[in-house]
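A quick word before the example. In earlier lectures we treated sequence and structure as two separate objects. From today on, think of them as two lines of the same record. Here is Transposase IS116/IS110/IS902 family protein written that way.
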Amino acid sequence: LRTYLILAANSLRYHNPIFKEYYWKKFNESNSHRHMRALVLSGRKFVNLIFYLLKNNVPYIPMK
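And the structure line, produced from the sequence above:
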C-alpha cells in the first residue's frame, strides 16, 4: 500500500500545484533522503485529503 501511495504522490507532484508546492517545501526542509521523505509526506497529505472527503461526503474541488 505504501508503494502505491508514493506513486500517487509522485503523480500529484506533477499535476497538482498544491501538492507540488508542498513537495518542494518538504524537500527543502530535509537534509538526507530528501526526495523519498518529501514523497512520503506528500502521500500522507493525500491520505488525509481522501479521508476528509470520504468522512464528510464532499466532492474534491481543486483550488485554481
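Notice the following. Helices lie at 2-15, 17-29, 34-56. We will return to this example when we discuss secondary structure assignment.
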